[in-house]
Amino acid sequence: MSTDRFFSSFEAGEPAPLHGDVGGGPARSPTAKAGVGFTGTRALRYDRPGHVRLFDVDVPAGEHTELSYVVFPENGLSVALDAELDDGSRLPGTLDPKALYPDQWNLVRRPVPAGRTVRAIVLDAPDATGWLDDVRIADRPPRRQDPVDWVRTTRGTHSSPEFSRGNTFPATAVPHGFNFWTPVTDASSTRWLYEYHRRNGAANRPRLAGFALSHQPSPWMGDRHTFHVAPEGDLAFGHEHETDRPYHYGVRFDDGTTADLAPADHAALFRFTFPGTGAVRFSCGRGGVRLDPKRGVVTGYTSVRSRLSAGARRMFVYGTFDRPARRRGKTLAFDAATVDLRIATSLISLKQARRNLDAEIPAGTSFEQVRDRARQEWQDLLARVELDGATEDQLTTFYSGLYRMFLYPNSGHEETPSGRRHASPVVRRWWPSTRRRTGAKVVDGPMSVNNGFWDTYRTTWPAYALLTPGRCGELIEGFVQQYREGGWIARWSSPGYADLMTGTSSDVAFADAYLKGVRGFDVHAAYEAALKNATVAPPNRAVGRKGLRESIFLGYTPLTTHEGLSWALEGYINDFGLANLAEALGTPDEAKYFRQRALHYVHHFDERTGFFQGRHRDGRWRWAPHEYDPTLWGHDYTETDGWNMAFSVPHDGNGLANLLGGRAALESKLDTFFATPETGRNPGSYRGIIHEMTEARDVRLGQYGHSNQPSHHIPWMYAHAGAAAKGQGKVREVLTRCYLGSEIGQGYPGDEDNGEMSAWYVFAALGLYPLAVGSPAYVLGAPLFRRAVVHLESGNRLVITASSGGPYIQSLRVDGEPHEESWIAHDVLAAGATLEFTLGEQPSGWGTPPPSLTEGGDPPRPLTDLTRRDHTALFDDTSRTQITFDTATPVIEYKVDGPPRPVEIYTLTSGTRGAPSAWVLEGSADGHRWTELDRRAGETFPWARQTRPFALAEPAAWPRYRLRVTASAGRRMSLAQWELLAGER
To answer: Distance (Å, rounded) from C-alpha 236 to C-alpha 198?
Structure first.
């Protein structure tokens, strides 16, 4: 709580400035309402004033006095308000102009030395233009709060489709809950539900359209099952009259009406208080609402769904007020000033919605009871991390990040009289839904939904594995259920199989979790699902890996696949995790095969340019060297450019370094990357400016686009270059200036997708990063806080201390012993450990490089297919074609084109009928005498057109090979491909 000593928002009746022109505010902003100030309708225009005296004041400073203001830079960022003190001095410290975003309002706070008197407020803007508002000198005493109370659910809402400062909404929910409940500023939208500033009214006051039931995973995915509740009246308000906590959203409107909301898993409790008697209205854009005024009951269903809400059917709503009412259309009016509404939902039936309500918020439950239960759930999670030495803004950022992480994924199941069940979002069923029950198939077991694995595999799932491994296993089991029901795990679960983004990244996320000791899920089914993603071309665009029909055999993803380079590089990361999981599960042939595939990034590396780029099916590069521009967005790259994909080998940093010419070459390329400005004006195949380009430009870290997930690992790659300190410096800069603005609805430099942007901050602030997801280790960085204690689920404690606030590691002791490696094993942390960092202001040489898939100094050389002149369907590098033999036991010969190379693995790809079950592979020098190389029996191909690998006991180099099939699952046998993978001589 602050106490103002001076304030001017440049409105009538407030202190007027000595210089500058008061006007209507910025003409345009991608995130704010135009033509007004930040608050009110006026703001101060500055136009290269140099150094001017803005206000004469006489304000003595107490122990916690500060000068604050909001600034909207239009041209130039060298702008600051300062204070002239009674001894002629200025405020201590300097401001980093890079902490300000252009064309947006920025909140700045500066402490005033206690015991001094502020004589004047001065403006320094020597070569800049823009706007100022809300100039304030106030006392802000420090607060002591529980972790959950540092959370601001409005963080990230000062956003729009043009520029993301998070693109979030104030979700009020329990951790991983079935429902979100949120205030909305636009009830007609399924995308930007709540905009902190841009949709303010004519007087520049925020205004709600009501409260919504929501299941939105991202504004880009859109919402589903929305259902609106709104008190009647003028719903204008000020943000200072909001309570934005995970367990409680509350607001006092300008007309005196108040609304408070507390969540349960499938239910919520609203309390409305009116200046006199009041009324509550209900609406649904696509659905039905029925009101029973005598009993105070509302029932209905909602079929609202965005285009990308794949598999969403009907949701049912049952609510009851604490008193009877009078009906006016879709409104209930009450003869009381305060009314409570208990409301619940179900995807199964209206009857189940009522059961959910009675189970979670029985009649007679008070608002305080619901609120306090939800608060305790969040507190139990967030309090697992204790911080010492964090500022208030850092506490808000850190714990709000944990809230965002644990908000997703969501449960899609319900407790019914028959046990835990769910309406399947992945089983196609054409039964119609009625107003009382769903037409979806209702299935036993858990269901997890709402996750974009392309985003979340990088940091969010590793965070679950470390902080909440029990819950992590439960969530994975809910996604494995998708595989059991629909045959695949969604790439983007919204709630079912949405066709969006690249990579089947649940593969590496779940492998990583298992390798870090997470249990509680069917790992064999999870492995099956990943194996299917990696070896079977999908039946449609919404599931599996695109380009897989050819990429398996070519070793690269051709241009016929849209954004094929991104699909390829994500595939290699997933193959890396799959290889490690296969090893852990005792399937060595598959482990060896996928380890080789994880190295196929070399086939997309263009030595002529030093960048990864796309290739035609015949092997030609998309761009000639003189045409290639790594700053060009799109084409082969998803939401980024060639620079930001140049380091997308987090699982094999040493191999990448060797491709570039060694560790020094990798360091040099990273240096150039961070020194090359992003202009935001090279849209490439996007043909127009997309928000990610503008955000990447405004981060101002060279080409580094921390505003988007493909770049998040890049600073940590300095560890593989033997220059860990350079990465530590970049990470500290991101931590200290890219997550600002919590108090005015900002807080992120780009989309905060399902907790990923938050998890990056949490890991980096603790001094850890899961660089090589799919392996149980972390790269180490400089912790942000003096001390952090992580209370692990096992009861062990992970204690991380830092000797000072410098950004560079000088030394580290783990459990009292010197630790020189720039990485640490998960097992060490999970067992409970004490990490004592000594930090400094200058870089040091601490930190030997982390382990890598490639060892030594040579570039990776994965196995490649033997060449032959026969290009029949069995050897045409696509699983789209096949050969069906007239017999169940054919003999197939293979004559090598050129000198023989040592074969280590061969693959067989089943056709659509009669897959082989037993065979002998033989080699021959002359085609007459044959030597047995491998014998198999009792083999199965679970899916048609599946590629399965088989490793030889010893490498074998022969000019001729023969496959003698001795048994098949049918009267005739078919094969789509036969591949012999060999090393170099």
So the answer is: 14
